[in-house]
Amino acid sequence: MAAALTLQSAIQGAPGSVAVIVPSRPHALTVTYKDLVSEVASFQQKLAAIGIAQGSPVSIATVNSYEFIVSFLAAAWQRGIAAPLNPAYKQDEFEFYIEDVKSAVVLVPKGAYQSKSPAVKAAQKFHAAIAECYWDDAKKEVALDVKELGQLQGKPKQPVLKPDPEDTALVLHTSGTTSRPKVVPLSHRNLTRTMKNIQQTYQLTPADRTMLVMPLFHVHGLLCGLLAPLLSGGSMVVPPKFSASDFWRDFTTHQAN
């Protein structure tokens, strides 16, 4: 019987193959599997350095982007728990989710701290660390700019960890249409099994390129749009949000199928 995968071992594209294309910059950002793995490992080290360890919830309040992908995977690799949030939430909504999962750190876009965005105010209320996460074009890397350490203040640097299939990798919430939203924890084993099912259902191969239009704080966007293509060794085009005026241009320019 094959060994269970984790979100680390499930990235199976050829090193030189394209993994991610971000069309929304002055020039499209094209990332190979080799560069993606290297970037995630580097960001994992940054999370470990501020005290993120096994079971630490990492809330991600950014739009669809390369930095979202890197921080999401790095949190899971570090045996932390990725907790994606809708970046358009109001402050009281952020407060609910940050308190509910007991966020250790909240990742926000560049400039959010100075502008005191709703996510920042909510994180401060519950003493979560706050860090801006963004693509640093000068350094050609995903930056982790810590603004407040909050509850991580004084916590020692953690070792870089290797995930286990039974670790909780992701927490999402039910929609809450009939009652208070409930936490749904998903392990690496849960996620990779679903990734395999999606890959087999869609018959995804390394030749396929996905146009990702679902939000990555949503389970459909995460599993069908991001994780299943990474398992298949294919690639994805990742605009920050769906745009009817840009969709076909990006779809054809970057040869999505």
UniProtKB/TrEMBL annotation:
GO molecular function, one term: medium-chain fatty acid-CoA ligase activity
Keywords, sorted A to Z: Ligase
Domain of life: Eukaryota
An annotated GO BP: fatty acid metabolic process
Domain named AMP-dependent synthetase/ligase: residues: 10-256
A Pfam family that the UniProt record links to this protein: AMP-binding
InterPro entries in the record: AMP-binding_CS, AMP-dep_synth/lig_dom, ANL_N_sf
Similarity-based family: Belongs to the ATP-dependent AMP-binding enzyme family.
Listed name of the protein: AMP-dependent synthetase/ligase domain-containing protein
Organism listed in the record: Staphylotrichum longicolle
